[in-house]
């Protein structure tokens, strides 16, 4: 193995701020980028990793998924385990870690900066591996949604730290503030959604909160890879002197799972039968407010060849064609796919093939049972399924994901 330290970039940012978009952008911009990627998602199903995988990854890239927990707490040992395994297996130039929207950035950074400590000994993972031997924390990046900063502060009043605290309560992660305060690069994403003349003000707010970071504006995560990879910006001494970092050192890692601490829960909805297009459209235009984020895909009969994706971030709900169902391809192609991914064949439905619905909901104190009930009511009845399926209207168009409702 190479003794050289691999620079690590840790991406943080609130739910839906655009971390995955930025990650994909960076992976696709630079040809032959020799990077390994760790994606951490809160839900049981790692939709983020699926979304990252959908974009073309070259053989040079490897994506590790860590699901159902957050890498700053419960999955911290797993993170160490995986990056240890990676370093043993092969050489690569960069390690990119996308933490879940609710991860506290400090413990994640500490994992790389300090390696094991008294609480996380190699014995915990049965591995004699200290990440700081092979990795060097290089850049901590926080992606913020410029639009939500704008929406919260557009009253014209002076912008204070309290405003941001208030915003982070709403967001609903008190973590947002930590994420802004603790980073080397602050990506102000979704600039396209903010009036041009407001951008400077938003940047001022962010700079007040985080004078040390380099602020980079972006639209759809379009950031030059050089801004976040191997920048050498992480400064252990300086980071250590920041209040949050000290606090974390003193507290140790016995904090609750960040998810529970902030009342954030998630659940997955799965269904084999299609949704009635009209009813699911209605559901999507009226998703309960405490659902902060919804992601995934569903099937409606009127769009037989394509899976409909949904993406809710803040008040915006987008839905529309996402990717083709395998079942719509020629049999020969399907067989080829089965050879490569036998698990897909295992789940194949005799009539519908791979068509199915998988939706992840993340929210603050969400009522999973009632959402499930509402979705169940969107599923087509036996009677409806007997009709000619092509006769159903597709309300989501054929042009990618577009805004639903209001
Ligand atoms: N208008 C606009 N939309 C954006 C921009 N960046 C990302 N989006 C959209 O915002 C939504 C959320 O983006 P993601 O990249 O999935 O966000 P994320 O931070 O990875 O989300 P989580 O993993 O759930 O925390 C998607 O629908 C993106 O297409 C942007 O700059 N402008």
TrEMBL record:
SMART domains listed in its UniProt record: CobW_C
Keyword set, alphabetical order: Chaperone, Hydrolase, Nucleotide-binding
Known catalytic reactions: GTP + H2O = GDP + phosphate + H(+)
Taxonomy, superkingdom: Archaea
One of the Pfam families matching this protein, by short name: cobW
InterPro entries with a match to the protein in the record: CobW-likC_sf, CobW-like_C, CobW/HypB/UreG_nucleotide-bd, P-loop_NTPase, Zn_Chap_cDPG_Synth
Sequence similarity: Belongs to the SIMIBI class G3E GTPase family. ZNG1 subfamily.
Name used for this protein in its record: GTP-binding protein
Organism of this sequence: Halorutilus salinus
